[in-house]
Amino acid sequence: MQWAFIFYHYYRVSYVYNEIRVFVSAYVWMTGFGNFLYFDKKADFSVERFISMILRINYFPLLLSYFLTVPLELYYVVPLHTTGFVMTMISCYVGYSFERKLGWSYWKSRTAAVVVSLLAHVLFYETAAVNFLLLFSKEYHLRFQIDKYSAWMGMACGLLWGKVGEYMQWAHGFENERRRRNATIAQFLGGAFLIWIWYYFFGFISDKHVYNPVHPYVFIFPIVGWLMIRNCSRYLTECHSSVLEFLGRNTLETYVLQFHLFMSHNVQYIPVIIPGADAKGPVTLKFLNMLLCGTVFVTMAVWARKNTVTTQSCVVDLVKHLRGTMDTSVVPLSSQSAGQRRQQQPEVATEEEVVELTKMESGTSDDP
What we know:
Blueprint: H1 2-10, H2 17-42, H3 47-67, H4 77-102, H5 106-125, H6 138-146, H7 150-172, H8 177-203, H9 208-211, H10 215-218, H11 220-230, H12 234-238, H13 242-249, H14 251-262, H15 283-323, H16 338-344, H17 351-362
Helix pairs in contact: 1-2, 2-4, 2-7, 2-17, 3-4, 3-15, 4-5, 4-7, 5-7, 8-11, 14-15
């Protein structure tokens, strides 16, 4: 999805705007989905966790914005992810508190928290309160409204994920071949039908100013449809691409660096390194120029991610030290196995690893 988004900018294919809009919303959806599963399982509402995720999402974009003197609105997905994470963390803490302090059952407490979160969204986005975003910029006012329910829908889907897992075990287990075959067919057709509904009624709309207002309410159709098709059989569920996993792990960095290395001037221009590879040049030279720029672009994105994660780990360790929560037990490295050393390293879950947690719990290994 990220690379479709990048090439949408690179080749100016405006006719797939609605599809790209769904891809962007799918990323914000995963913020709510993956973080809900993490908090629901770990109940880790610590300061360290909060700082870790805020750094992972914002550190590199803030540096670029400051040193390159570009407005942060250029990376509008970053504040969308940040607010989605904070909203999910607060909602999960509310549900956890309902269970621990009021003695409510799991489903009652989590459902109440999700409903409270929905009410907060409605009161903000469906009233004049949303104009508060104009204090920041018109761009944020637009972007946040387009994805106003994306993270919340991801959180709601995370709440239901356990039931989905139970269904998957029942439908695609090895006990009944006929049931598994029928479930595969029904699930595939159901998913295709949801995607068709979105495209037939909304996806074909060519005017983005007409489509954008309805997008927050209908983008979930193709997402659920894709998930149904992607998991309609055990083979597809377990199918995995190492290349897409690699690209997915560097999504944040490729997103922000596309504006500076792969393209420039707010994605209005393309760097030309090979002479003759400009707009009037032959297709072969333009393709080679794209590969060369893309190689530099991806290499720098991988390097930026490694540095961001290193900084993230150091800051979290410093916070743990200052708060007295760091494990101070010291064992000579020579007496430890490599596996033991890995186990004792500080656990700093990144946003991509939250998605990995989602995959492990669901028995899948697919990429965003």
